Amino acid sequence: MSQQPTRLWDKGTPVDEAVHRFTVGDDPQWDQHLVHWDCLGSAAHAHTLAAAGLLTADELASLLAGLAEIDARHRAGQFAIPPALEDGHTAIEAYLAQRCGEVGTKIHAGRSRNDQVATALRLSMRHHALRWLDLLGEFVAAALARIERDGDVPMPGYTHMQPAMPSSVGLWLHASVEAALEQMHATFDLLRRLDTCPLGTGAGLGVPLALDRALTARLLGFSRVQRSPLDVQNARGRMETYFVRVAADIGAVLAKLANDLWLFSTAEFDFCRLPDALTTGSSIMPQKRNADVLELLRAHAARLPARLVELALVAGKLPSGYQRDLQLTKEPTIRAALEIEEMLPVAGRVVGEFTLNRAKLAAAMRPELYATHAALALTQSGVPFREAYRRVAEELRAGRFQPAELAAWRESDGRLPAGVLGEVRTEWSSLKSRAEELRRRIKGAEAAVLASNGGDPGA
Ligand code: ARG
Asked: What is the pTM of this model?
């Protein structure tokens, strides 16, 4: 019985060491991120095998206890995936075989690593998407608090980076808030796309056993099964692309804001400043206070679409069904998930903590910013727009631009219109409750499936 654990497909013929090393690559490293999810998928599969009469209640209980143990070890950083075993799926099965004896070798009936890995990745992406919703919500909260504090501070608005029209801190930050809310909607849509259960489809051609796939799906908190076994494999890469697409879009929102702050905090603009705690120094120039944090937000954001391209090229032109190429889709996916989770909190801190140079901002609110206002005021007294435009341009050129309404315009224009903030808050809190509701449902199912009571945790 106590055989040395080995590759699942070992048939006793030796494998070339270099080829083994090459095919395994850094897969164990990425599979470390999937151990928890593979334990959940394995637990659901064990329940389904028991429901099909392929495991006794005691056998099920033993497997669930073993899986919970693996999960706990993994949490403690003590579950190794030895490269000799190829991957996390094999390491988990080897552990079960050692801990549970013969029953440990029964769990692979009716599944393949192909549907196993698709399931673990789907669960993992679902988890990260839920986390993104949280973090996007927190980012929005930080930006809204900032708008409430300083929204009415006037600042120039730019096009082509040339002063264009009056704006304000509120108008500027509101753009990022709306974009982040849009990404929350996009994340819900992503979660809908991820909401089918791949497990029970075997290698991609179905399983000749009467497995209740609907039960498996329910146990894992999915709304439905992914019907086509072949599409489960074809969807590897596709699902990851949806996922990384959203990550890249979130990154782009943060990068734009970081870019603005970066520019506005140069000595030349001097509209705002990062507190010391958020800057870095130079090893040679004692005066330097560098905004590395903004530059790295930008660079991380730039890398996310590169991960998307990597996915598209690795998975995009494969024939249908599983091919080992798909193994390499894990890295860009997992990296993207983790990057977003580092970027959003950092961006939230920056938004909450930069300081404003009100004097510099006030000085930048030069009368020319109101040139369009002046032209439009003339049209209201009947002057055709092109003529009004010409007259104002002439006044500006001659240094005679002093509209009587300037003081009044300065008082109110370029501010975030009253009511907008209220609307934004309402949308934000409804998205937050929707996210909480979804999390409760999903995390409830996840917690139950590993509970080793041997019963049907989904019942
Ligand atoms: N490491 C593999 C992957 O990520 C797991 C699936 C292996 N399946 C196989 N037939 N070799 O794709």
From this structure: 0.95
